[in-house]
Specification:
Elements (H helix, E strand, L loop, with lengths): L8 H12 L5 H7 L5 H26 L4 H12 L5 H28 L8 H24 L3 H26 L1 H10 L3 H20 L20 E5 L11 H9 L4 E8 L5 E3 L11 H4 L13 H4 L6 H6 L10 H8 L6 H11 L2 E6 L7 H15 L6 E3 L5 H7 L4 E2 L15 E5 L5 H9 L3 E5 L4 H10 L3 E4 L2 H4 L11 H33 L1 H18 L1
Parallel strand pairs: 1-2, 1-9, 2-4, 4-5, 5-6, 7-8, 8-9
Antiparallel strand pairs: 2-3
Helix pairs in contact: 1-5, 3-5, 3-6, 5-8, 7-9, 7-19, 7-21, 8-21, 10-15, 15-16
């Protein structure tokens, strides 16, 4: 395997200590005759693979932050425990990636200094555990949250050009330790294999932009209008969700639609509530502890008015933005009550925004009565019917007959043989490709995608031409006057060529320089090896 000789003794010792967990000076290491064996090379390869594996998981962790509030809500409904699990995810991922990257940097520095890659058994165990933890995370993601694979595909449209540049840069830097190893090793077969693998990887990276597509690679004058904002349960980062305060905060964020969820009380009053139980967003456990687990529809309106719908927001802090609320906002949030649909319609009418809602629970035996009661409240409110966006699929024909002015929004894609034209669709952002969005836009079909919180995702959908997005972060997206990045195809082509050419020149320079250094560094040792070989042959003769 590779011969080693040195950097300075102190530098070699400092590198060997954390990697091998042994305080061996360069001279002692040389006397002991430690060499990088095939087993050591195998562990280095495993270390490199674990680093890449963890790096991919870090990318996924950043991507799924857009939807992580849904995961927090899911855990609360299952365990009645509220915690911002995104912090746990990021801290754990940061620890894993920091550990594997630190070991990899040490290994590369040791290789450049000509020191043996003797990975300690503790590191070997920790690397195996790291790989198992990341594999378990990917497995859990695939089983419980499979739609996030679609999110990753969309994210590549936002990050593909930059991932390409980063990958080319990383592989280019890898040329230095690779060249050092190749000029030091005595195995011709290993040299050929490593060079072939490296060259194949670089050629694939150089040609990768041929397969990279992004809606944001376009001319400035082709950029569609900024998508309208739909407040998901209002402005839930600034106020308790599904409250009048949340609606007013959403209006301040220039949202055009207030999206909410409606349930009907036991005495027939429609009110705003997302969960089937009241435990997450009210103090029902303190007021009605024996009834806390009941469905929201089992409470009458008088009981519901006794509940506080804002104190939980200040106590649990579902979003980091809660910490930055002003004292006046905190005081107002603490006083929030469950609003009726009539109150929400009146507020929407005064604010001149539309209201879009789902009617829950769809499987209730009295669902038709829920529809009729809800329609009666809408008609009595005096709100212009074109400001009401109707989402529920159940008894939609009855709704069209009783309130013909209501706009109907469908939670599905259009069918080939539609009896009536579909003018509005409301879908998860993972369910529509950029090509489908463009086609719907050409056919004058309004497309609203949910839930979009991160600027990178909003930018991709903006470039694709989506009509509107439902968001928790209206205060963030409101401030965006332009997509995060927009590149004309000619500019991207020029960047691609320049990056590839610079990378190629650096790699050639690295191999040339390392070859020159290897001849200067080890000529005496090579001559000694030849002399010893000749003496050994003479003695045998």
């Amino acid at each position: 395997m590779a011969d080693h000789s040195g950097c300075c003794s102190t530098c070699a010792t400092c590198l060997l200590c954390p990697y091998s967990c042994q305080w061996i000076t360069a001279k002692k290491e040389k006397r002991k005759g430690l060499r990088t064996t095939k087993c050591d090379c195998s562990w280095f390869l495993f270390l490199f693979c674990v680093f890449l594996f963890t790096l991919v998981w870090l990318y996924f962790a950043i991507i799924i932050l857009n939807d992580f509030h849904n995961f927090n809500e899911f855990i609360f409904r299952q365990r009645k425990l509220w915690l911002d699990w995104s912090l746990v995810l990021l801290v754990a991922t940061a620890v894993l990636i920091s550990y594997s990257s630190a070991l990899l940097v040490l290994a590369l520095c040791l290789q450049l200094c000509g020191q043996p890659l003797k990975l300690h058994w503790v590191h070997k165990i920790l690397l195996i555990l790291t790989a198992l933890v990341v594999a378990a995370a990917f497995t859990g993601l695939g089983i419980k949250w499979a739609e996030e694979w679609k999110s990753a595909r969309i994210s590549l449209q936002a990050t593909g050009p930059f991932l390409h540049i980063g990958a080319v840069g990383g592989m280019t830097l890898l040329a230095w330790p690779l060249a050092s190893f190749i000029y030091r090793t005595r195995s011709t077969g290993l040299k050929v294999i490593l060079l072939l693998v490296y060259c194949a990887a670089m050629i694939a990276l150089y040609l990768a932009p041929l397969g990279i597509t992004s809606p944001c690679i376009m001319e400035e004058n082709q950029l569609p209008l900024k998508p309208a904002l739909v407040g998901h349960r209002g402005a839930p980062m600034l106020a308790p969700e599904n409250t009048l305060m949340s609606l007013h905060k959403a209006v301040d964020c220039d949202v055009q639609v207030f999206e909410t969820d409606v349930m009907v009380s036991a005495d027939g009053v429609p009110f705003l509530m997302h969960d089937e139980e009241l435990t997450r967003t009210t103090n029902v456990q303190a007021v009605f502890p024996e009834r806390a687990a009941l469905n929201s529809t089992a409470f009458n309106w008088t009981d519901l008015q006794q509940l506080n719908a804002g104190s939980w927001f200040l106590e649990r802090r579902p979003f980091p933005t809660v910490k930055s609320l002003s004292p006046a906002d905190r005081k107002e949030a603490a006083k929030q009550r469950i609003p009726s649909l009539g109150q929400a319609l009146e507020a929407a009418k005064q604010s001149n925004i539309s209201i879009m809602f789902d009617l829950r629970p769809e499987n209730h035996s009295d669902y038709q009565d829920f529809v009729n009661v809800t329609l009666a409240v809408i008609l009595q409110s005096g709100i212009p019917l074109q400001q009401v966006l109707w989402l529920p699929d159940g008894f939609r024909e009855d709704v069209k007959q009783q309130a013909p002015g209501v706009q109907h929004v469908y939670g599905r894609k259009r069918l080939e043989n539609e009896k009536e034209p579909v003018l509005h669709v409301n879908l998860p952002y993972q369910d529509m490709s950029s090509e489908e969005i463009r086609q719907y836009r050409q056919d004058n079909i309004s497309v609203n995608l949910y839930v979009v919180n991160q600027p990178w995702l909003f930018s991709v959908l903006w470039c694709s031409g989506v009509s509107s997005v439902t968001t928790n972060a209206c205060q963030v997206l409101k401030e965006m006057e332009h997509p995060i990045w927009l590149l004309p195809s000619s500019t991207y082509f020029m960047i691609w060529i320049v990056v590839d050419c610079v990378s190629f020149l650096i790699i050639i320079w690295a191999f040339f320089l390392m070859k020159k250094c290897s001849h200067r560094r080890w000529p005496a040792e090579s001559e000694t090896d030849v002399l010893l070989t000749k003496i050994n042959s003479l003695m045998q003769d």
